[in-house]
Amino acid sequence: MANADTLSVGLFGFGVVGEAVFRVIQQTPSLAARIVKICIKNPGKPRSIDASFFTTNREEILGNEEVNVVIEAIDDADASFEMVSRSLAQGKSVITANKKMLARHLPELIALSRKTGASLLYEASCCASIPVIRNLEEYYDNDLLVGLRGIINGSTNYILTQIFERGLGYAEALRQAQEKGFAESNPSLDVSGQDAVNKFCILLTHAYGILAQPEELPFTGIENIHPIDREVALAERSQIKLVANAIKLPDGQVAAYVLPSFVKPMELLSRVHEEYNGVVITSALTDEQFFYGKGAGGFPTASAILSDLSALRYRYKYEYKKLMMQKPSNLCLDVELDAYVSLNREEKLPAGFFEETYEYFTGRGFHYRKGRILLSKLMEDHWWKQDGVSLILM
Amino acid sequence: MANADTLSVGLFGFGVVGEAVFRVIQQTPSLAARIVKICIKNPGKPRSIDASFFTTNREEILGNEEVNVVIEAIDDADASFEMVSRSLAQGKSVITANKKMLARHLPELIALSRKTGASLLYEASCCASIPVIRNLEEYYDNDLLVGLRGIINGSTNYILTQIFERGLGYAEALRQAQEKGFAESNPSLDVSGQDAVNKFCILLTHAYGILAQPEELPFTGIENIHPIDREVALAERSQIKLVANAIKLPDGQVAAYVLPSFVKPMELLSRVHEEYNGVVITSALTDEQFFYGKGAGGFPTASAILSDLSALRYRYKYEYKKLMMQKPSNLCLDVELDAYVSLNREEKLPAGFFEETYEYFTGRGFHYRKGRILLSKLMEDHWWKQDGVSLILM
């Protein structure tokens, strides 16, 4: 930054997050940060603050030499990428929460940031208020991180909580999540697992130096969980949660996926209810560390953005230590897991889908099997993602 | 450091923590750290590693120009202070877990570290494996931190877990804690609350820029908790835990103490069992964040030391932002709290001890009151710390 003593901020977007960022910066004089301009799409909307802040012309931020920090709080991933990459190219530091954009473009953005020396921070992109990226980057920067397991999508966790703890059906639970603002009017990014896998790609970069595209990970969402799956879980005193999991294998490679999983009452993740997020970091030395907090919402997200802004005062940058300075890990699919697969119809599973099957159930027009599967099978075809099929890890 | 590419370590102490540090450094080649010398007190003890590592002469570390990092893992706080301050004075970076020493000498050590530019890190001193200091320092470095509440002593939490969940008596619970290595053969530092208040002083520095001596905080331990206190708690579906608490008041001052407290099942701290620690950080924006992990033991402590060592590779220093760059908060005792006070005998409370009493109980030779007390009353005399009196916050 030209002058670290003044953070002159250009803000893109004035939705729930953008407005919360604005309010918080106004209320935090110790930051010595100042909003110079706010770029919005729709000039007709009534706004709660002085009109002179607003512009619809992005050049008033991108082309403004006074602006040394760009905060990007818009939904559109393509527009986000353009603004973030142009800002970095000009040496402006950038703070973004756009996980979809980051999961797609992280390698080029890291290269750009290294080239111009501008900092790119995005703590708010994963688990909002939980400082998980900074902790992975700074504190677990050794090779002793054996596992990373988390509930990193608040909408699906809210929906599953309603289903498991309140006995609601999926449709009603989804409706309530939308009503409370935990799910978008188009919730497909959340319920398909896409949002969680986007975030997990970002976390894998900081945990293990892995730069993966979301398609490289087996993942699915919660849409196909059947009421009888719930009964099976409850009979075993478990819940079903959408779990992102990474396991470091003895050879140093990492198996990673985002899949519905049975979570037993003893597990730390069983304590993550409603729209909250939780991450369990397992290291060779300390057993389990648990980080828990609000994973979504305007102020939790603004809080993470604020911490990034504050870090810019000290010229903080992610160092991507595990990517740059150690030997990065590779993704590995050659791993066997215990899984449960249910079907709401009589149908043969593809030959060899299970390495070994050790439990069958048929009844009430419903069928399930339990056995060992190879993670790589989940990438070979997407048979298990179709309607009426539910795959849940055990 | 002379050369950040090589961490040449002098280690003081080869007990549980020291040996774990040694093992972990040997097993982590990516650290590029090397143990040069280990200073021990008792040369006669059989050791598991090559004798050439050891010396009983501290000058072989303090006077060794090759050593640029000193790791101090001894019990004795006075000897610790001497080694830490001499090392810093010579420009050697220091990593210590000695909370007793730090709580006593932090101001002078900070000054010394600033003078010579040597880094002093001590993540392991509080909550072992939970990176609470680094998070307070780096991530919650704004003025929006409204509260810090934690279980920060593993021994007492282990004892209280046995009493509350297994129905053991205090003496038997303490015996088991000692047997399992969670309490020292002289457990008074733990059960008196002294260890917890030492740690809390360190945390207050990083949370609020407060440099307090332990005596400035109202604190006590768990020795006087009476079996009927347990019954009262269980009747209200609560547990009693030793809680360190800091609340930022509307005027910016901070009320802080370490006292037994009733913890309701809804509270995050109710989930902290056995020897674990947990810290809840409340910020104005994110509600509650919860950090949970092992608070004691050789490897959890070594893990925190390892993270500090790793941070030294990047010349990391605590910046004490809230102390140096913002207006530090002050401790304040002018705050009313809800408290329960029980006595195992008929005795009048000192006049005016409660501002207001709203519940009395007498029966089975046991008496308790509930009411509002001023925190400052707890500093005026120590009547409430005597045998047979139990003060528990509600």
What does this structure look like?
Two copies of one chain form a homodimer. The first copy, chain A, is α/β, with parallel strands linked by helices. Helices cover 32% and strands 25% of the residues of chain A. Chain A has 13 helices and 15 strands. Chain A has helices spanning 16-26, 59-62, 77-89, 99-116, 132-138, 154-166, 170-179, 188-191, 194-208, 227-235, 298-312, 321-324, 377-380, and strands at 7-12, 33-39, 54-55, 69-72, 93-96, 120-121, 145-151, 239-248, 254-263, 276-283, 287-294, 336-343, 356-363, 366-374, 389-393. In chain A, strands 3-2-1-4-5-6 form a six-stranded parallel sheet, with helices on both faces. A five-stranded antiparallel sheet of chain A has the order 9-8-7-10-11. Chain A has a four-stranded antiparallel sheet with strand order 13-14-12-15, with no helix packed on it. In chain A, helix 4 (99-116) links the parallel strand 5 (93-96) and strand 6 (120-121). In chain A, helix 3 packs parallel to helix 4 and helix 5 packs parallel to helix 9. Chain A starts with 6 loop residues before the first strand and ends with a strand. The model of chain A has no long low-confidence stretch (mean pLDDT 92). The A-B interface holds A 20, 24, 28, 30-31, 128-131, 134-135, 138-144, 268, 271, 283, 285-294, 299-300, 302-303, 306-307, 310-311, 314, 319, 326 and B 20, 24, 28, 30-31, 128-131, 134-135, 138-144, 268, 271, 283, 285-294, 299-300, 302-303, 306-307, 310-311, 314, 319, 326.
